[in-house]
Amino acid sequence: MSRLITLSLCVLATMALAEARVRHYKWDVKYEFKSPDCYEKLAITVNGKTPGPAILAQQGDTVVVEVTNNLGTENLAIHWHGIRQIGSPWSDGTGGVTQCPILPGDTFTYRFIVDRAGTYLYHAHYGMQRGAGLYGSIRVSLPDGMAEPFPYDYDKSIILSDWYHNSTYEQAVGLSSIPFGWVGEPQSLLIHGKGKFDCSKLAPPSSDPSACNATNPECSPYVLTVVPGKKYRLRISSTATLSALSFQIEGHNMTIVEADGHYVEPIVVQNLFIYSGETYSVLIKIDQEPSRNYWITTNIVGRNATATTPPGLAVLNYYPNHPKRVPPTNPPAGPMWNDVAPRLAQSSAIKARQGYIHTPPPKSDRVIVFLNTQNKIDGYYHWSLNNVSLSLPNTPYLIALKENLHHVFDQRPLPDQLPGFADYPIYRVANNTNATSSNAIYRLKFNTTVDIILQNANSMIVNNSETHPWHLHGHDFWVLGYGIGKFDPDNDPKKYNLANPIKKNTVAVHPYGWTALRFIADNPGVWLFHCHVESHFYMGMGAVFEEGVDKVGKLPSEIMGCGETKGFKTP
Ligand code: C2O
Ligand code: CU
């Protein structure tokens, strides 16, 4: 009898071993001259490429990425966006929060389990490095024997991004200077790392042909070759630093079926609105006139970039037409940049797919209302939540909390709501001069249910409210509702969608609007929650949540070595 049990346990163990694999990657991260939009500048590459290599794994696998920082004079950290890091909070890759940055010349090994199939991202998470080109996709497939609830013939990933010609250092220094230097609109939009800047726009003497070369093959448009009659799953994601985007394929409707790793009740759209940090899967049928190619376009929405940033263009190449054959039509125009209604409509239409609904707890234990404002603090421009602008400490929070280094950040609790929120005028430039910079955090009771209300407001420009894509590390949250105007704590919660809300890790708060989220604080660690606009986060638009840090296992010494943790690093 006992032999039988031992035997079957052995069989089980072997089966589990056969299923969960280790996916090992070795990455060399460095600066290289690149011309993704024909204009040559320094970009951060992974193994020579931007976008970097895709991570392909199966649900349950362990991903191991050995990262060597060959940037020479710059620190580095890489975040695995959408991977919850259950049991490995020190692999989240958030410089200042979960680890000390990787020093030039050092190698750091990220190790984590991809516990759920879906489409995710990775990108640099130190300073404003993401904008220099360090990003890529993570595709986690279902375990053997399981099928997606929608059939398709081919599976492709496309990353959208925006691109600046100045360096992320110039941007960062501008943002933290008096007078303030805003990053402005990007020069180009990139579709899977390729765009096209009009070199003739460069004024002499910078019209040096080696610096901008329209015939450089590096900036030939991205081509997606498709076979007529087939169905494609396109995994579209955005790592844009600033821009909210609309994505469109000429003559082809798209059916949204996945968002941030969760199945969506299918909806058909002509434009996909996508905010930085989001991932979607759409299905398309290759069913148009097959003798020609079609445009794939991306446009900026939410900001007026019509005079500054041309649309990003790629080609949907119907096989066997020549991939370089230019579509015979003009690229379709994008939607009106300032029309919020269709964006809000798409956000609100995204619901969990029938049969895959994971209902949220009916009530929350704590409600945090985050008023999003732009403020001046000591003459510098910042973004704040409830008049607090986040500044990261020198010693990462995870280490500080685990090793009881209480003096390295402000231990005072932060308010769950701005005092006076009820009277706060979100429709006009508010004179909220009492904002401060702080490294204080929110401590959440382990396993409790937390609601976050993101409340948008006017920026410091008259009649201007921006779109902010909010991303939560370490969790997925339910999206309970959206609204325009001031959140009404008595009546709006009655309208929450508790029946089939989508779970996501990134969600937009629309101009002058609010967005309500719910999550369970059940992942021991310290997690950043922030606006995914690179410049906004740099200007303090974020908060930090701690939960169950006492349950976190022994920290690897490799994450130490900065701030007060220098002595913790064993050589
Ligand atoms: Cu994709 Cu903290 O970011
Ligand atoms: Cu923002």
UniProtKB/TrEMBL annotation:
Its cofactor is Cu cation. Keywords: Copper, Disulfide bond, Glycoprotein, Metal-binding, Oxidoreductase, Repeat, Secreted, Signal. Its EC number is 1.10.3.3. The keyword NAD does not apply. Residues 1-20 form the signal peptide. InterPro entries: Cu-oxidase-like_N, Cu-oxidase_2nd, Cu-oxidase_C, Cu-oxidase_fam, Cu_oxidase_CS, Cu_oxidase_Cu_BS, Cupredoxin, CuRO_3_AAO. It is found in: Secreted. One of its GO terms (molecular function) is copper ion binding. Residues 29-141, 157-320, 427-548 form the Plastocyanin-like domain. CDD domains: CuRO_3_AAO. It catalyses: 4 L-ascorbate + O2 = 4 monodehydro-L-ascorbate radical + 2 H2O. It holds the Pfam family Cu-oxidase. It is an enzyme of class 1 (oxidoreductase). Its main location: secreted. It comes from the Eukaryota. GO terms for cellular component: extracellular region. Dimer. Belongs to the multicopper oxidase family. This is L-ascorbate oxidase.
